[in-house]
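Thread: zinc ion complex, take 2
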Amino acid sequence: MSQRLGLHPTEVSAFEPPATVDHEKLLHAVRLILEAIGEDPDREGLVDTPKRVARMYEEIFSGLRGDPRDELSARFHVEHDELVLVKDITFYSACEHHLLPFYGKAHVAYLPSHGVVTGLSKLARLVDQVAKRPQIQERMTNTIANILHETLEPQGVLVVIEAEHLCMTMRGIKKPGSLTITMASRGVYDQDSTKQDQVLRMLNLHP
Ligand SMILES: [Zn+2]
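Output below.
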């Protein structure tokens, strides 16, 4: 599937994840972390923490157990090929280097071809599915653009993501409020800077 769509395997998932989360392993791992940092995993406040963390991980990494391309299976036809832009899609992901959250807004634009469009909510679901896995922002941006470009086959795709990374703000270089902006363009939005500028201006990202 990844090969057919020309996606680099790591852009969606480099391996086949198990269908369900291994809860026993997670319970054990969280308990070990608590012990390793010098905590008492049996004290009252922590006794249910491994269970809570296991359930939380299942939720925030649920994107590993699905194919985000499935979100775009709904197709509709419109008469004219005009820009579709969904901006300010809130997402939460986890940086794969530190397993700390990064979160922000995704803006997804495409110019349809032959009037083929998908549901607007599907774009938000696509962002969500790609976000809910250990991730880096650069790959997340490219993955969303590739899936949209290769599944809907539009004339062009432009994806911009603005995010704050807790691994940069609560630890390390500690730069609260810093935003990381990434962009991926395909088709006409890659080749035609006027068309690209038009979208960036709508996002207030152009001078
Ligand atoms: Zn990080």
